[in-house]
Design goal:
The N and C termini lie far apart (40 Å). The protein is 82% helix and 0% strand. The chain has five helices and no strands. It has a single domain (5-144), classed as Four Helix Bundle (Hemerythrin (Met), subunit A) (Up-down Bundle).
Length: 157
């Protein structure tokens, strides 16, 4: 199924998250322009957490979860899992920021983030698209635009 334009905005973020996930895995190939040391990878993860992942998770939890969670039993289950995985990823970020077992934690982070993004892309977004009406999708598009504009203005201040 073709991805609805409003969900494409989320999918664009996912592409970057998959690259980040890949470089964090143990024995990952080198990516041009990406850090190769454990310390460099940890630094990048923490930067991307603040600038990209955390805002992305917040937007999903603020807009997508409330809209989708009561549409079906399957969507309710997926929304619970999405929120749980967000918390697990955030917990790993805490360990990374404290330099706790960095190589192992980065690997765990990479594996979880990779699986999480693929779950959202392959299952969650498909279910959302099938469950929402055209009106709900259009309202979501307006909300996403407002949130992105608001966050852009906040960043400029």
């Amino acid at each position: 199924m073709k991805r609805h334009f409003v969900l494409v905005e989320f999918s664009k973020d996912h592409h970057q998250a998959l690259i980040l996930a890949q470089i964090c895995k143990i024995n990952s190939p080198e990516y041009k322009g990406m850090p190769t040391t454990v310390a460099g990878k940890a630094k990048l993860v923490l930067e991307k957490w603040e600038s990209e992942l955390k805002p992305h998770f917040n937007l999903e939890e603020k807009l997508l979860v409330p809209l989708a969670e009561n549409k079906s039993i399957r969507l309710k289950e997926l929304c619970k899992r999405i929120i749980l995985e967000h918390k697990q990823i955030e917990n790993l970020i805490g360990k990374i920021s404290k330099n706790m077992e960095l190589e192992t934690t980065l690997n765990e982070f990479g594996l979880l983030l990779d699986n999480h993004v693929r779950l959202e892309e392959r299952e969650w977004f498909e279910e959302i698209q099938n469950a929402l009406s055209s009106e709900e999708i259009n309202n979501l598009a307006v909300q996403v635009k407002k949130e992105k504009e608001s966050s852009t203005q906040t960043c400029k201040k």
